[in-house]
Amino acid sequence: MSVIYIISDNGKINKVNETLEFTATDGTIRKIFPHKMDSLIIGGLVSITGAAMRLLMKHQINTLFISSNGKYSGKLSFTGTKNIFLRKKQYLLSDDESFALPIAKSIVTAKLKNELTFVQRIKRKKDSNVNFDSIVLSLKNIIDQTENAKALDELRGYEGMGAKHYFSVFRHNLIPDWAHFPNRSKNPPKTNVNAVLSFLYALLMYRIETAIELSGLDTMAGFLHVSDYGKNALVFDMMEEFRTPVVDTLCCALFNRGVLSPLDFDIVDEFDDADMGKDGEKAVLLNKDGLKKAITAFENKIETLLFYPVLETQMSLNMIIIEQVKHLKRVIQGEEKVYKGYLYK
After folding, report:
1. CATH: 3.90.25.10, 1.10.3720.10, 3.100.10.20, 1.20.1260.10. Which one for 3-66?
2. What is the pTM of this model?
3. Confidence of residue 279 (pLDDT cuts 50, 70, 90)
4. Helix (H) or strand (E) holding 235
5. pLDDT at 148
6. Considering only CA atoms, which of 61, 24, 33 is closest in space to residue 288?
7. Which of 23, 41, 184, 185 gives 20 to 30 Å between its CA and that of 70?
């Protein structure tokens, strides 16, 4: 999937003949060709003309609008489905705990095992006073409890416990002294590491959401996360097994390899997203240069080839996401009996 990003504090997107042109405030012009892309992501305070919107609709370019910290604002989507029978079956099964629980178990188990793999890697290369053996043992015990869970609420509790243990040692995989991660903070992110995690999770969420829409499934009818008005529960479900392989590993690499520097972050107390922070609350966000670096790294990461056990072949992480959604779809349709979450090595 070819994805084009326009991230700017200002500027305008216009239609010129059958192309789009983004004009920055300094007069720089970037040409964008609709026939060469599948998706467009617009971030920051970028305006777009009606003619440009109509050109995107003509070419059916899925377009995502995000805030300066990568939080979802809105979208143009052309990936709707006509398969009402698939969705009716999905809705019925998502309300059937006897069907949903095994899928949710596999998702949570895969997430916890991926977190365990990451913690064990940190343990092998770190000489510190941290009791990694205790964290490893706790995660293994939680995995055992997860596999024996009798209800979804119980399962969600184990997932939360696992995340708490995992993030308690996450900072020990960060080398620079200026990379701050006392704990996970989201809305708003209060440290530079949290800013990167939040932005990369937003990019991952969009990839998964697109894959689900293309499959014909409904993004809101999930099996692990509780359904709520306007909540993309299935997207959050499918994200769980990819958080560590895609985002967490990449976040650490961006700091440890010197891709990001302290100059790539801003401290702000005014947000272009009304749901992000309270009046007077400060946040750390990637600035324009930082966003560009994170986006480039994410696109490279998502095309990384890894072994995919379901098909017993190597493929990009992007294709693995698509195949996992197809795998879930086959389980919903009764073509396969067991859903298997993605494990990375």
Report:
1. 3.100.10.20
2. 0.89
3. low
4. helix 233-239
5. 94
6. 24
7. 23
